[in-house]
Write a structure and sequence with these properties.
About 35% of the residues lie in helices and about 10% in strands. Strands 6, 7, 8, 9, 13, 14, 15 and 16 form an 8-stranded mixed beta sheet that branches. It is built from 23 helices and 16 strands. The chain is elongated, with a radius of gyration of 27 Å. By secondary structure, the protein is α/β, with parallel strands linked by helices. The protein binds S-adenosylmethionine. The site of S-adenosylmethionine has 22 residues, from α14. This is NOL1/NOP2/Sun domain family. One of its GO terms (cellular component) is nucleolus. Keywords: Methyltransferase, RNA-binding, S-adenosyl-L-methionine, Transferase.
Length: about 575
């Protein structure tokens, strides 16, 4: 099969295989062309499709060449008009013959299009297309993007200045995030985040996934909000070791590692112990730690349940700080704005590009893709996969929230029992009070917090970048009981940090709060898990609650509550 047939078959996706374009290409066995070749052809043709679609339609290519489907016509026209080496097929190949027959008309229409777009030379036209400037003209569909591409410079491997003078050389700095949100989606502009050090915002569709900085782990794609927990935890060498209790895919682990590494002096030792219960996600975590060159600081405890640890054990005697970012409803997660559109040509005055694609060798026109929008004849292509920080959990919302918040409180209480811990951050990518402030208030009222001397880290005590962040906790009546007076309640809410999705701040929906205890409040003896605390959480049940137990809390879920209580007593938790 030629490059073009292979690329067209992947795009048509007749078997409706999920995942990004890249993963579909790289997972496909028995390809004759290299995945890189196919990916480049599709990505480039998509970028140009806004220009090529009308060019192809004006030439009547599809009406005359029955062998060409809209996708084939687009891919071939792209290579004929724009690829350095032209169409990659032998001179007598049926596809090459079909497209070269129309070379003169296609070239003439293409030149007209270039001039209409106001470019005297092909290089300038190329630059405009690469910057996504034509998408903006395309029916004025360009809305303000709400989600920039957030890029954290991994300071273990690079510095912000190094990145600005290499990866982002030629990019223009703006001091207004709005300029990035309004910019053409691939234009070269960046904004240095004022809250989180070493964080940049770029236009949402900037393609950095093949840049050396990304592939070598010098930069990491991480939403701004997701950078809050490690920064708020603010681990310093005097804190001792840091636990990341629920770590995969490892964005916050590698961020913690970067902060820890930046402060360590020769001879000092401080490690980040990263727990991840899920086997598959452990592999991702290990890869991410390795790519970020964080191995010397991070110890991965893969396929390990944080809840199964014994907080008083000698192994954790040096743990002074814990980052807890447990499973949640994922309701703050936002879809990325980085899908690229492939505009497909239509047969002029004839069939729409929505007939069936014949799976046999004889190609008919067609519904070349399950994800073709008929009205606009476009394919939406998500170029890249990245492992999501959270897998949204399905089921009835109120039941999910009840089960999740019990689990979250339980795991937070567990963290509070670590003998020498002095700082904890608790975060979720949920927008719901129940999983956020609700858990914080219940945790403060728990015996683990009371006996352990835990309190919230007040806003004035927070690191500068977050002290200045204006979105704070919210209160929802009748969701949890609170015996605090109004002033104390306000203080707790003011200590809670929120990010809202779909705002001009460009973040996902997120929540984080920090708990601290002062040295004099650390009890000499470990507080035991009391019946009250244990009864807060009964595990997730398969019956009726609708929770997918394996998604949330694996093995512990199936234990009868009595058994669990006994087990915890025995392990001193
Ligand atoms: C929200 S994700 C963490 C995202 C991660 N902090 C990041 O920023 O890349 C929660 C993770 O916790 C894991 N997890 C849930 N319960 C756990 C437990 N009891 N012990 C260890 N890991 C757990 C889940 O498998 C999931 O990978």
């Amino acid at each position: 099969m030629s490059l073009y047939y292979e690329a067209a078959a992947i795009l048509a996706n007749p078997d409706n295989i999920g995942g990004s374009l890249k993963s579909r290409i790289y997972k496909k066995k028995d390809l004759k062309s290299t995945p890189a070749q196919i990916f480049a052809l599709v990505a480039e043709s998509s970028k140009w499709s806004v220009v090529l679609k009308p060019v192809i339609e004006k030439c009547g290519l599809l009406a005359e060449e029955k062998k060409l489907t809209p996708i084939l016509a687009l891919l071939l026209s792209h290579d004929l008009l724009l690829a350095k080496n032209g169409v990659a097929a032998p001179a007598n190949h049926v596809l090459k013959l079909a497209i070269t027959r129309h070379k003169a008309r296609l070239s003439a229409e293409f030149t007209k299009a270039r001039i209409q777009h106001g470019h005297a030379a092909l290089d300038a036209f190329r630059e405009a297309v690469n910057n996504g400037e034509l998408d903006k003209e395309d029916g004025a569909v360009q809305k303000i993007s709400r989600h920039p591409r957030w890029v954290r410079v991994n300071t273990i491997k690079s510095t912000l200045d190094q990145q600005l003078s290499t990866t982002f050389k030629g990019f223009r700095e703006t001091d207004n995030l709005k300029d990035v949100l309004l910019a053409a989606k691939r234009s070269k502009i960046y904004y240095k985040d004022p809250n989180i050090p070493n964080l940049l915002a770029l236009p949402s569709r900037i393609d950095l996934s093949r840049s050396p900085a990304y592939t070598s782990g010098q930069i990491i794609f991480q939403d701004k909000a997701s950078c809050f927990p490690a920064y708020l935890l603010d681990p310093v060498p005097g804190d001792g070791d840091v636990i990341d209790a629920t770590a995969a895919p490892g964005n916050k682990t590698t961020h913690l590692a970067a902060i820890v590494s930046s402060q360590l002096r020769t001879g000092q030792k401080q490690k980040v112990i990263a727990f991840e219960r899920d086997k598959g996600r452990t592999v991702t975590l290990q890869k991410m730690v390795k790519l970020a060159s964080a191995n010397s600081v991070v110890q991965v405890k893969g396929s390990s349940d944080f809840l199964a640890t014994t907080p008083g054990s000698g192994e954790f005697a040096n743990v002074g700080a814990i980052l807890l970012d447990p499973s949640c409803s994922g309701t703050g997660i936002v879809g990325r704005d980085d899908a690229i559109k492939m505009h497909l040509p239509e047969v002029q005055g004839g069939t729409k590009s929505s007939q069936k694609l014949d799976k046999s060798k004889k190609r008919k026109r067609g519904d070349e893709a399950g994800n073709t929008s008929e009205a606009t004849a476009t394919l939406n292509l998500h170029l890249d996969d990245s492992t999501p920080e959270e897998t949204p959990i399905e089921g009835k919302l109120s039941e999910r929230l009840a089960a999740l918040s019990k689990f979250q409180l339980h795991i937070l209480n567990h963290a509070m029992r670590f003998a020498n811990a002095r700082k904890i951050t608790y975060s979720t990518c949920s927008i719901h009070f129940e999983e956020n402030e609700g858990v914080v208030f219940q945790a403060l009222a728990s015996s683990a917090a009371k006996q352990g001397g835990w309190r919230v880290l007040a806003r004035e005590e927070q690191v500068d970048g977050l002290k200045n962040w204006h979105r704070r906790g919210i209160w929802e009546d009748e969701k949890v009981s609170c015996d605090l007076d109004e002033g104390s309640k306000r203080e707790v809410l003011n200590a809670c940090i929120r990010c809202d999705k779909d705002t001009e701040e460009g973040t996902m929906g997120f929540f984080v709060a920090a708990f601290v205890r002062d040295a004099e409040n650390v009890p000499a003896q470990l507080p035991e898990a009391t019946v009250d605390d244990v009864e807060e959480w009964n595990g997730f049940s398969d019956d009726g609650g609708g929770e997918k137990t394996e998604d949330i809390d694996g093995a512990a879920v199936q234990q009868p509550e009595k058994q669990k209580k006994k087990k915890r007593k025995a392990s001193g938790q």
